[in-house]
Amino acid sequence: MKLQMHHLMPKTLKMRLILNLILSTSVPLVLIAVMTYSSFYSILENKISSGVQANLKQEALGLENTLTNLSYASKQLAGDERIREQLRIYLSDAPAAQRAEALKEVRYSLSMVNFTNPDIGLNFYYFPEQAQPILFENLTVAPGFSLEGRQPLMFYNGANFYGPHPSAHAKGSTVFSIVRHVEVEKNKYGYVYVESNFNLLKKLMSPEQYGMPVAHVLRNEKGEVLFAESGTEGTAGEREAPAEAAAVAEAPEKLTVFTHRSEQGWELQVAIRQSEYNKEINDWMRRLLLIVCGSLFLSILTAFSIWRLVYRPLTRMNQEISHIVQSKDRRIRFTDIKEFDDSLHNIAEMRQQIFDLIDRIEADEKRKRQLEIEKLLVQINPHFLHNTLNSVQWMARANKQPDIDRIVTLLIKVLHYNMGKQSMIVTVEKELEALRHYIDLQSMRYDYEFQVVTNVDPQLLLVPLPRFVLQPLVENAIYYGSGSGDTAIEIEILSPNGRDMLVRVTDHGEGMDPHRLEEIMEGSANRKQGLGIGLPYVKGLLDEVYGDESEFRITSTPGEGTSIMMKIPIWREEAVHAERNHRG
Prior knowledge:
17 strands, six-stranded antiparallel sheet, Beta-Lactamase, 4 domains, alpha+beta
């Protein structure tokens, strides 16, 4: 057997190189192709499926939020006793002046609801038994409006939801709507009708975000088709299978259908042609086949070239490459052959670039902590939260509740400062102003059970420091010191040497033992107090901004109180600009 194999081997170096190179290239390449085919097929399919499901979930979430906003707006218009009182006056035989005042009040309430809910379009009150059934409409209503014959999307939260359907507005488009019962007085009732914004449906169900042609199908809580688009077929009331509802009219073929069922009861589906769904996978397979064929072809060409090479310079070059990889500082010994020497020179440059890249990666790792700190400040949607608090503030003022109005006003100021997008570097004066708002808010919360005494050097008011470093210190003092008899909290901001600024917050509360201090600094305790950021955030921020130039220390004695001290260098204007550029 060995003799036969020996006779089958080529006799020339050229043919042996060709045979060995083809075998050494093709066999691993075929094995890799087979292995990657199964793995990459699964990866790409999961990637496409996950992308479609994520987009579908996002669309469904947007639709849920829209319907929730419609429900909230209709509740305001149907459940507000003050609005219902004005409706009773307007629908009664009251004097004209009194009815005109009632009309003004109701229109004002409608305008406020529209202002605070950007997803809302047409809205009005509907009293079918009145001579003029449509009242207080904010836009023109097309003639012949009626609630009869509409296919409901769902009954949820005490109201009927409809849509998508043509808007009741004379020039409107396809919208969602809600109808909620309004009882003005006994045996006299009507409805409040609220539609979504005219462009909302197009915005919610956009095929462009999928990156491929898709078809949307919307079903109500009974499974009936209410909406079908982009080459789909289906009429309201049908209960066919999703794939049939999305069949392509001109050339039916197998479809891939994704379904998201809302907790509110309705279903949103996306149907995709199988050819479009597998397009990226098929393209990848063609590229893989092209790579395999190209690699085999190049292997043959390379085999013809290798046998012409001189083996001694090649061996010398391999040795130098090995030494270059093993040692960073070793000098290169060239072969005196231009082609090999050029390659060695390029490899040496590449080695230097790799080590430079490693150095940059190490520098980037040091900035990760800053990214984590900034991530904490954007965990809540400030726009939504501020709009909601402004609505609560408006309702408190409308109902003459000054205490709630003051609490919400203070909370808005505190959140605007803490979660705002302004610079992370502020002045001591601005930090103290925000701290006073926070203290006022906490004073109302603890029913004024503590007082805060400040001792601030006026010359330090314009000294820059990182934003949101004082509040966690005072928050800790309030939490651990407000339950004792002596409820005074002392805040000192001084400069003992003119180069450093010393900040000290002292309480006379119950104090803490060393174990408790360790838990607080590790962030394992008190995570839900205040904003839940705590003292580890402050220390991490000081380390990030000032490095070794800052100092942060806590001293506490059980039964006597706790003192938190931080010392930071006093920055000048040029240092502030340098830090901002570094952080930017």
